[in-house]
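Standup notes, structure subgroup. Blocker cleared on the adenosine-5'-diphosphate input:
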Amino acid sequence: MSQPAAPLSALPSVDTPLMQQYREIKSRHPQTILFFRMGDFYEMFEDDAKLAARELGLTLTSRNNGGAAEVPLAGVPVKAAAEYLRRLIAKGHRVAICEQVEDPRLAKGLVRREVVETLSPGAILADDWLERNRNNFLVAIAPNGDSVGLAALDLTTGEFALEVVPAADLPGALARYEAAELVLPAGTTVPTAPASTATREAWEFDPALAREDLVRTFGLASLDGLGVEPADAPALGAAGALLRYARELKPGGLPHLARPHLVRRGDVLPLDEMTRRNLELVEPLRPGASGVTLLESIDRTLTPMGARLLRRWILAPLVDPAAISERLNAVEVLTGDARGRDRLREQLDGVRDLERLASRAAMGRATPRELGSLRDSMRRLPDVLAALDAVTGRDRAGLLEHAADELDPLTDLADELERALIERPPAQASEGDSIRPGFDPELDELRDARDGGKQYIASLQTRERERTGIASLKVGYNRVFGYYLEVTRSNLAQVPGDYERRQTLTGAERFVTPELKQYEAKVLGAEDRIAVREAELLDGLRRRIGEAVARVQRTAAALARLDVWAGLADVAQRERYVRPEVNDGYLLLLEGSRHPVVERMMPREVFIPNDVRLDDAGRVIVLTGPNMAGKSTLLRQVGLCVLLAQIGSFVPARRAVIGVVDRLFTRVGASDNLVRGQSTFMVEMSETSAILHGATARSLVLLDEIGRGTSTYDGVAIAWAVTECLHNQLGCKTIFATHYHELTQLTESLANVRNWNVAVREAGEEIVFLHRVEPGGADRSYGIHVGRLAGLPAPVVARAWQVLALLEAGHHVAGRPVPPLPDASQLGLFGGEAGPHPLLAELAQLDLNAVTPMEALTRLAAWQQQLKEDE
Ligand code: ADP
Ligand code: MG
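Run returned:
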């Protein structure tokens, strides 16, 4: 083992039989790390070993492969494997678990080995590796000209969706599913793929093959029943490859797959990645920040199914006013009856993850404890139904009625689990005694035999003490020798002839008798058979649930919807949201609207509500105001209110009229978006260009300081041209927040542009932010005020006022002498006789036309820092 690993090229062509077996299995699992079971270890060889050593910090050793050849090797103990697996999967790897599938003691020659399962980011089934509040989608795509077929499957819940999206919308669609892993045809690339991708041969994406597969898998006569149309062919192709891949990963079968559901174009509002990020819908812009997302602000769900559904709804708002109104009806009824809602929520609160638990049961993986959770959750269902029945005005919301119809109380399953399982089943089947006495006569008999045998053995102690006269004689048990009679050394003389010696200890000897052996065999035999029988019975329960999994899934889905509606109603009532009027019109009107997240971060009375109106006559709002006035907040507030309305939620406003939008774009100028670490002007411009290509008259475009990533003149020029295009050609509703007050002149040439500004009041050199929107443009930028507020030294502020005055008077600043400031020496700005401070020279040379406001601020900050250090 001390020899260094031989390079692969130097390996002899003849492998040992073990390595032959390894290579044969490995060749069938490309792009996958193979955990090769050898006794108490999973071993990895060659490149896998090197990779695992690097990723997991394992020691790389080597194994003799016949002759002098050595193969790199790394291993993990089976007992600790779960943690290593979790880490590899978290890093995006795929790992195949290859087990010994026969008893090594019985094997003739090499033990047979087989891959029993493959784990990957999209194929995790271990409950504690998953976030309970989000789906884990495995997504396959099949590009087909201008469109892409897409199939998404959550193996943990069985949810399965198909759709065809325009190629340009693919990144948005992948983001909507938050794909954990992507399957795509060899040779294809995707701009924003998740970390983990698997490539498959092109033929696997063949729609005709997929058609047969789907018909067989779901026992259908044809795919018509699913609503599949000819144009869905690419989605079928994707589904075929996806199913094949999923079965490869889980050879044990996927009995819990739900029938695929078709998502149609026009069903959902496409949201691109930047919009999702800038509006902080489900993830914070700053990783790790908490309480800042829309999801966090409105999530009052009580079940994991509800939490997952709400997240999905936020990422996929609706566009059909009728569909939106139906959801709003449900929320309205639940908002109106606070007591009914509370009772419903109380019942929902006890329901666990019915969906994932049922899937785990169907796949034969649920532990006794999980089966117990399933039982307890099912027991609540009649109460959920009763609470729903008691909601006043329930009949006014068709969707609530529908949910009540779909909600199957599953009493047959609950009863069966009830009869079978003890009240608190153990975490693992191996702990035994999961099954209630009286459920299975065979198990009861075996248990009687075991208990009778144990009792008999226990009584043996008394009888043997009497027979031998050894008062200290004991009956005991250990795993190696089984039951024994123990006699201390001093009493050995009294041991009868029928005792057989088994074990010698320092102070005592251990014996068995034929009678003891006979009862021991009975007890141990019964125990083995009890374990087998319990396992059979548990399997039977899992099968029963597996057979009914579609019913459980339908019920789980109905619960999820109820949970979301009740949660939204709760927010609506407590946070004073209003039901929006949602229609097909153009008008977007928000009266007294608030930002759903920002208002929660501050005491209620401090957040200033604002009115916003976008209509045919005023399609474009140019929103000006100094930094910190509240422009970005208002912009996002409008986006979030529209989005909330379109998922079917009430909105934080006094009144809202929302003409549904077909697209929602939110862009933030580069320097406001430093968090992305990619603040190039190029990115900003290509994002803007995507809007100009994708927006229609029915879209809503929110632009925040676009053009900021370049110099002032360029920035204003680009902003100007973009606004003209949105106004003249696209006609979409637009809000453009900018601190370039030059843009307010746009109203002079564009009929449907309106100027608004976020008001500030000036009191001498002070400014007060009113956070109130009013008509008209901001007349000045107040940048120097903000600089002062931010703590710039007084001389710098004073000089800035001077420079501003020079610039406004049309003078060139560079080369002009810097007038000495009266109090400068006190501040230590000037170094005695040594002439002006170098910072002033720098300031004098700064070409204000060539820097962005952000750069200016950054520079000011650096100067301030330097001044502090000089002191
Ligand atoms: P801008 O984009 O104009 O620089 P922001 O929208 O970033 O300004 O707002 C700056 C700060 O002002 C926010 O962090 C928020 O705390 C506060 N603010 C914004 N709008 C309001 C409002 N309507 N009511 C109260 N405070 C607000
Ligand atoms: Mg801003």
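Discussed briefly. The first helix runs from residue 17 to 27.
Next: hand off to the docking folks.
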